[in-house]
Request: fold
Amino acid sequence: EILKIYGNPRTSLSMAFPHLYSENDIKRIPVGMDILVTHESPRWYELDCVRDAVGEYGTDEPGNYFLYERVKKVRPRYHVFGHIHKSCYKETDNTIFMNVSQMDRNTFRPEIKNISV
Reply:
């Protein structure tokens, strides 16, 4: 069996890996992935971690709207991400979203999620 995984480390912050011009790195996320791994979270307010982070990033909203739109289009089986330091997990009809970030090992306990592809 072949498992297709795609990763994108870029983020909206102007730090180490800023997005390419006009979000071209997001537009390049291919269709047909089993697992999409990104640093940044999608801006989807049905995710507890995104909704709970509103206001914690100054005037910026948490997550990336363009990433959310691309995930809806390419429909990976899993979207694993971080950046927002609040864990969350949500299943939809098409994609399972998992925020696996951890900021302080004394605050957050690691979780093990078994995934099947």
Observations:
- The mean pLDDT is 85.
- Residues 65-74 form the longest helix (10 residues).
- The chain has three helices and five strands.
